[in-house]
Each structure stands twice: as structure tokens, then as C-alpha cells.
Automatic annotation (TrEMBL):
One of its GO terms (cellular component) is plasma membrane. The chain crosses the membrane at residues 33-50, 57-81, 93-114, 126-146, 158-177, 207-226, 246-268, 280-302, 314-330, 335-354. This is Ionic transporter y4hA. InterPro entries: Alkaline_pH_Ca-Antiporter (IPR052946), NaCa_Exmemb (IPR004837). Keywords: Membrane, Transmembrane, Transmembrane helix. Residues 26-179, 211-353 form the Sodium/calcium exchanger membrane region domain. It is a multi-pass membrane protein. Its main location: membrane.
Amino acid sequence: MNLWTHALPPLAVALLALPPAWQGGAMLLLPTAALMGAVLAAVHHAEVVAHRVGEPLGTLVLALAVTVIEAALIVTMMLAGGGAEAELPRDTIFSAVMIICNGVVGMCLLAGGWRHHEQQFRIEGANAGLAALIALCTLTLVLPTFTTSSAGPTYTASQLGFAAVASLVLWLVWVFVQTISHRDYFLPPGEVRDDPHVHAEPPSARAAWTSVALLLVALVGVVGLAKQLSPAIESAVRAAGAPRAVIGIVIAMLVLLPETVAALRAALANRLQTSMNLAFGSALASIGLTIPVVAVASLWLGLPLTLGLSPKDLALLVLTFLVSAVTLASGRSHLMLGAVHLVIFAAFLFLALVP
């Protein structure tokens, strides 16, 4: 047993009780260090659970846990900011899609290709995830820009309700297909699955349940500390004169750290299928669960909500999906594909700072 993986999650949560006087200046180093530690602990415990329940349920555990808490964080910030945070859900969800589809996938393909030359994954499962993601992004981030029933890139109450229900239905169907009806589409290819050096021995039931509890504690710590650091992040963004959308990017990066580290470690261990399951599962959950929660909060509490993307972001989204379709076409990957995705990710970050 690694003592640090058991000690850091409760410590991260305990730091959330620090008074505001302890949260400024050099003392920001303490929650920042705790945040990084909680991320590493979350990845460790997610892998323990994954080894116990097997693929693809193992990757679903981390994606689901992170997204539920991410949605709670977004709603909390909307309630605190009121109308000033109308664009935060859109910016955070769009950032999550770009980070996952270009940053995470790009790093996994590049690192895995560099170490193993060529890697394989199941094209059937990856294509199903991409198709669902394209539909979800179009319904929630693209169409609000072009509808005419409400002013601006927004939905009417009925349109928002339809988008929320459609998002939840697509995510539920995805989970059913991934875990029950077509589970074999999300398992590693035969030669990788049969390699005895790829997977660790399954832990005991007691160890797995302990890791489930500590995973949830670690994720609460990650999101709570990210929220605690958000005032400093907003101040830094304003001081740098950067667009407000950068705040959504930073929040998405912090929340997605556990999944990013887990996916990269899987790719380096020649388990690219696990990386793909994590990537598409996280992106789909980020929309399929967050949009319904945000829609309910907006309709129930009367909070303004702006979902439509700008032309620049629409172009980046279309480019991402076109390149992703090429990447998934053969079921094999190499580092060139990773380099292309990372260049698109770099363009996304650069254009967010210099729109």
C-alpha cells in the first residue's frame, strides 16, 4: 500500500477549510501542491478500480466521477456570478472537448507512437464515440448560434430542454453500448489483450472499494481546490489582459488532470484502447451530463445561459472532428497523428489568448 495515495485525498479536502487569509500570496503554493497530489492519487485509485472491474467499466468510473463534480462546480460558479457567468458553461465544455480530442488524444498518440512505434485500438468503439460527440456538440454548441427564436447565441426554454434531454439520452445509450450491448468494441485488440505484461493483477474487493472511496475524496479535493484557486486565476487573467474565455480553459484543464494523466500512462503502457475509452468517455460525459444539469439550473433559477460558439471556435471544432475522423479511420496510430492533434490544440490555446 502506498501511504501517500491514501493520505493525500483527505489532506486535499482538509485544505478546503482554510480561512481566506491563508489563500493568498505565497500560501497559494500549498493548495496548488495539494491539487497536484490529489490528481496523482485520483489516477492511482482509478487504475486500481479499473483493474478490479475490467474494461471498459474501469475507464467509465473516472470519467463519470470527474464529470459529476465538474457539473457541480460549474453550477456553483454560475450561482455565485449570476449573469456574469452566462458563458462559463459553454467555455468550459468547449474547452473540455478541445483539450480531450486534441490535447489528451494528441499526447497519447505521440507518446505511445514514440515508445511503441505503432499502436492499435478498436475502430468500432472509437467511431461510435466520435459520432455521438459530433451530434452532442452540434446540438449544444453549434445550433444555438443559428437558431432565430431567441436573440443571440442562445436557446429558448423549450429548445434548451430538448437539447438537455437529447444530450442525456445519447450519453445513456453510449454507456449501454459501451458496457452491455457491444462491450467487445471497447476492449483492447487481441494481441494487446492477451499480453500478460499489459495488465496488473486484479486487486482484492476490499482494496477496490477503498480506492472507490478515496477516488471520490480525491476528486472532491481536486475540484474544491480548483475552485479555491479560481479567484487567483481570474485575477491573473485580468492582469494579463486575456479574454474571459481563458478562465473556462483553465478550469477544464484542472478538472481533467486526473483523466489526462491516466490516459497518458495507459498509452505509454501500450494500452491505447484504454486511452481512447477515457478520452471519448470523458468528452461525452462532459456534455451529456453537464448540459442537462446546467439547463435545469438555468430554467429553474432563471440564470442566463449562452451556449453558441463564435465563428473562430466553430472553425476549430470542425477541424477537430475532420482530423479525428482521419485518425480513427484505420484503427492504428503513430506519432504523426499525435503531432497533428497537438498542433490544433496549440492553435486553440494561442487563439484563445489572441482571438
